[in-house]
Amino acid sequence: MVEQFPGKARFVSENFGASKLAERFGVTRYPAVFVNDVLVARPRDFGFFGEGDSAGRYAPWRNAENQARFKKDLAAMVRRAVAGESPAEATPGDSPAAAGDQPARLPDFQLNDLAGRRIARQQLKDKVVIVEFWATWCPPCGSTLGWLGELRKRYGDRLEVMALAVESPAEQVKSSVAAQSRQIRWAIADAPTAAAFGDVVAVPTLFLFDRSGAAAGVYYGAPPELHGQVENALATLLK
After folding, report:
1. CA-CA-CA-CA torsion for 114, 42, 35, 5, nearest 10 degrees?
2. Distance, CA of 226 to chain centre
3. pTM of the model
4. What's the pLDDT tens digit per position in 10-60?
5. CB 74 within 8 A of CB 4
6. Taking the domains of the chain in order of start, what are their residue ranges?
7. What CATH number matches the domain at 96-237, 3.40.30.10, 3.20.20.80, 3.20.20.70, 2.40.160.20?
8. Going by DSSP bridges, is the β-strand pair 159-165/185-188 parallel, antiparallel, or unpaired?
9. DSSP per residue over 30-73, as a string?
10. I need a labelling partner for 90 at 20 to 30 A (CA). Which of 67, 201, 208, 224 fits?
């Protein structure tokens, strides 16, 4: 993989129990694969540690098709990190490699939020929209969700924020968001919704769309510069 990006990417192997990134994400088993500070795969994604062949995204790992899928997903994330000036952001249109499978427009989807109310693309017309994919097992997601609640309060009805949980039990999702902002639309993403957004492979992943529904940026992980990047983009979109 590194050989595909000479001088732009390097491989780092960290010992079990000695990875600050793994500690930050609460990963206590291996293997775990990161691109910069984005968690791309955990042990359960490969079906390891007795969690069952159907438990993970790339399970059963012995199948060549799943190995190819992992290589494709990893290569796409590396390309996005290499292509952008910032490893956190990849904007559709920067380059074919950066765009990957990212949606050019807000996808058509239908979900019920945690309160049982319907959420659909048609309800978001003429609004700037943030869609955040997160998980209960992702510690950095917590601070990101709190910040998104502050953004929604600051901009009011001009901004719609949807927080879609993935790979997380419903009861844990409800418990995690109990103290979070009620102005955010909380829901659990089903497989078709995740696929519509480019088959989300890492959390947190934040999608930003302008008032016309066109993609305005995709942000991976929760690096220190994330808040500033998104808020600068919003200032332009919400003028």
Report:
1. -130
2. 13
3. 0.76
4. 999 998 778 888 888 878 778 889 988 888 888 888 887 554 445 678 888
5. no
6. 2-83, 96-237
7. 3.40.30.10
8. parallel
9. S--EEETTEEEE-GGGGT-TTS-TTSSTT-STTSHHHHHHHHHH
10. 67
